[in-house]
Design goal:
Distance between the termini: 17 Å
Strand content: 25-35%
Strand order of the largest sheet: 1-2-3-9-6-7-8
Number of helices: 5
Helix content: 25-40%
Structural class: alpha+beta
Number of strands: 9
Radius of gyration: 23 Å
Shape: globular
Order of helices and strands: HEEEHHHEEEEEEH
Oligomer: single chain
Largest sheet: 7 strands, mixed
Length: 205
């Protein structure tokens, strides 16, 4: 096998084997130009699938009364990280659609001015839940998230055109990002291997 072919094969094998390099690209889910959600959204290093759903918190989140069982995120910081992930990875303009410029293309949102994707994370008092909203506006730079808020568990978001629930479910193990030092070490090792092979080849001739 020629050296450059061998080197390319080794690099390809390393990149395929590294966690997070091959399967961490979000996949937008859409139908008839409407954004339904996305798969492989990275939140704090973990993969999630997300779907947008209209309705009440009680109906969508199994009663909306047991955060540890009903919600994917159970504190404000992780809910904010999920909201930021929606803005950075899902509400984007691209070949699939102008989902940032036109918030009304998101399922459950019909208002062209704003779409709030609500992420519940706690129950404040019985019948009430706390949530963070990813605020998608028709501009190039969205605010990171809407302020923390409290809602009625039986309030139906289907009744308005600018808010919807973002339902996150775990999609796999944590995404590991290779450290630069590890990549540098591999590069030096690969270079040494190539030079060693070249030296043996020259001695043989």
């Amino acid at each position: 096998m020629k050296l450059h072919v061998l080197a390319a094969a080794l690099v390809g094998a390393l990149l395929f084997a590294l966690p997070g390099t091959a399967n961490a690209m979000p996949i937008l889910i859409f139908e008839n130009d409407q954004l339904l959600g996305a798969d492989n959204v990275v939140v704090n290093g973990t993969l999630f699938d997300v779907r947008f759903q209209d309705g009440t918190c009680s109906a969508i989140f199994s009663g909306c009364d047991n955060p540890s069982e009903d919600f994917a995120f159970t504190d404000a910081n992780s809910a904010k990280a999920a909201a930021q992930a929606l803005l950075d990875q899902v509400f984007l303009d691209g070949p699939a659609g102008l989902f940032d410029s036109n918030p009304e293309l998101t399922l459950g949102c019909s208002a062209s001015e704003l779409c709030l994707a609500n992420i519940p994370y706690a129950q404040s008092v019985p019948g009430m839940f706390e949530f963070v909203s990813a605020r998608n506006l028709p501009d190039l730079v969205d605010p990171p998230f809407e302020f923390e808020n409290t809602g009625d568990s039986d309030f139906d978001f289907s009744d308005n055109g600018f808010a919807v629930f973002a339902v996150f479910t775990s999609a796999g193990p944590s995404v590991a990002v290779p450290e630069p030092a590890s990549l540098a070490l591999f590069s030096f090792g690969l270079a040494g291997f190539i030079f060693a092979r070249r030296g043996r080849s020259q001695r043989a001739t």
